[in-house]
Structure to design on (346 residues):
């Protein structure tokens, strides 16, 4: 079996998580098993997750973050949650039961030193043959980009909130 | 009802159509009606379309292009097909039966002068209240970007075919 693709969607623009979601949608269409691990809460609503689970038993979601940011008041708790999420990612990759593993916002864990970059690179590079992995998040590190097969930088040209448009149901990113 | 979002995904990187697909997925999760018009054949396989239709009666697909490129041998036929596709887009927007209309690869029709840019801008700017429209494709024109609420440029940092990896089932973009 050929090596799967490691894709990274980075940059400050909208479309990183939605691209990952589109890939998940396609994979389900091919009858592939998909695991989504979200390291920052809130990108996908519970309604969307419910819908995804309803349409296919092949997709599973894990929300491992509480929405930590640089403003967080409890860094120790955030770090512990991030590390727990990363452990789940490691186990999921090693178990090799999915065709596609989406690690949504993983880049933040590296950037804020919540997990070791070397370990992330090692686990991703040793992923089982045929397993595709998608990593999303701003500020993907140089080494992660080096390791990846496909990298797109989503560059924000215009953001709807910048001109006063509120987030709209069915169109959040 | 507030004005819906006009989003444009442009640039040379992967993730434009998949982002649109992710947005469609989300919209379906909210019970919204989605119409996808593809102006270039081949981005989404019939298997994926079948899957989408199976999971929800709320999504419809129209493939209006034959995969025209600058190498096309029959420009008149390609142009006629493109114009037919654009007419369907105009009717779909004016009928106002969908929450989300995806015009996949529409930018090429403007770039290759198959449809009038002024007309595209006029139709998009007069879309019904509450209707979201997503336009994808390389080389979005300056006027289209000016009109849009949200614009992301997908910039190719790395492409898997560049290092010899073949397109893989369940991971095509």
């Amino acid at each position: 079996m050929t090596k799967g693709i490691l894709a990274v969607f980075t940059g400050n623009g909208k479309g990183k998580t939605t691209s990952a979601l589109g890939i998940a949608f396609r994979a389900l269409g091919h009858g592939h098993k998909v695991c989504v691990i979200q390291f920052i809460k809130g990108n996908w609503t519970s309604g969307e997750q419910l819908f995804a689970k309803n349409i296919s038993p092949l997709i599973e979601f894990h929300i491992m973050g509480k929405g930590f940011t640089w403003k967080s008041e409890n860094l120790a708790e955030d770090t512990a949650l991030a590390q727990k999420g990363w452990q789940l990612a490691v186990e999921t990759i090693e178990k090799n039961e999915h065709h596609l593993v989406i690690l949504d916002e993983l880049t933040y864990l590296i950037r804020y030193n919540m997990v070791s970059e070397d370990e992330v690179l090692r686990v991703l590079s040793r992923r089982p043959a045929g397993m595709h992995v998608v990593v999303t998040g701003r500020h993907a590190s140089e080494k992660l980009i080096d390791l990846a097969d496909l990298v797109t930088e989503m560059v924000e040209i215009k953001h709807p909130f910048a001109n006063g448009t509120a987030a709209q149901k069915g169109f959040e990113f």
Remarks:
- Residues 75-95 of chain B form the longest helix (21 residues).
- Chain B touches chain A through 62 residues (CB under 8 Å).
